[in-house]
Amino acid sequence: MKFKVNSYHFKLLRDYERLSAFKEAIDEYAIRNCEDSNGSNSKVAFDLGCGSGVLSYFASRYMDKVIAIELNNSTYQLAKENLKEFDNIQVFNDDILIFDFSKLNEKADLIICEMLDTALIDEEEVPVLNRARKFLKANGEIIPKGMINSAEAVFMNNHFIQYEDDEYSPIYIALGESVVYSEFDFMEDIDCDFSAEMELKIFDRDDLDKFGFEENLSQEKYAKFNFKENFNIEEDKLKINGIKLTSFTKLNDDLICGPTPMLNPVMLIPMEETEVRFGDSVRIRLEYVMGGGVETIKTEILEIVHND
């Protein structure tokens, strides 16, 4: 099937890893819930933030009815055109946060909501699901099922928030182990005001030697910005000035998708530049409002624990 899309949604459709992950999750849901249906148990899906309508299209094969909702009017027009031949799909141009679900006179067996962003910061996945979950049947399911977020200490060239994807590669070097700092189940109500304290372990000398830290610093991309001047290798001293966030989308119990070009790309967040020693642990507080945008991000270094 050919989809009419704008330039942004063209990139979304071109991200085959992202599409295949959601299609696999929808197919798996159908295998468990829809294939034995004899028509007496009508299945309803909500596709929230439906975009160009591709996930509604995937779901329409299995569901008796798909309710697709899109806020942006021009994108809604594209979805409406793309899905016009499907009698079991109804497309609405509305804000999900105020949409009158009661007028549908039915609840959803399945909610599909791909309003994801790294660490759930910039898009409205959480506030949307907090509201829409009230209109999910008691035995209903949500795709995706949840998210896992991890962080690691880095030193980066530019001191502003950056994303790493196929089109842009920020200059940074990882200086510590990745630590899971939050996990969310989208079937549960989630507080949008997020705050977490985490302890980030800085690499010791053996770790740095394993991946050739000093040799890596000689690479042109690091040498160009004098990265080596920020580290005193002989005295076991490093500097950190940011954290790298990586999000893993839990589509279902058996399917987890890491960052793809258009799904939760790696995010770099600046913080106060601080000197650390090999093997130290750094306690950090990270705060943001889910769905509130990157301007709500706050970081604070609470303590540096030395590895004596």
From TrEMBL:
SUPFAM superfamilies: S-adenosyl-L-methionine-dependent methyltransferases (SSF53335). It comes from the Archaea. One of its GO terms (molecular function) is histone methyltransferase activity. InterPro entries: Arg_MeTrfase (IPR025799), Methyltransf_25 (IPR041698), SAM-dependent_MTases_sf (IPR029063). GO terms for biological process: methylation. Residues 47-140 form the Methyltransferase domain. Keywords: Methyltransferase, Transferase. This is Methyltransferase domain-containing protein.
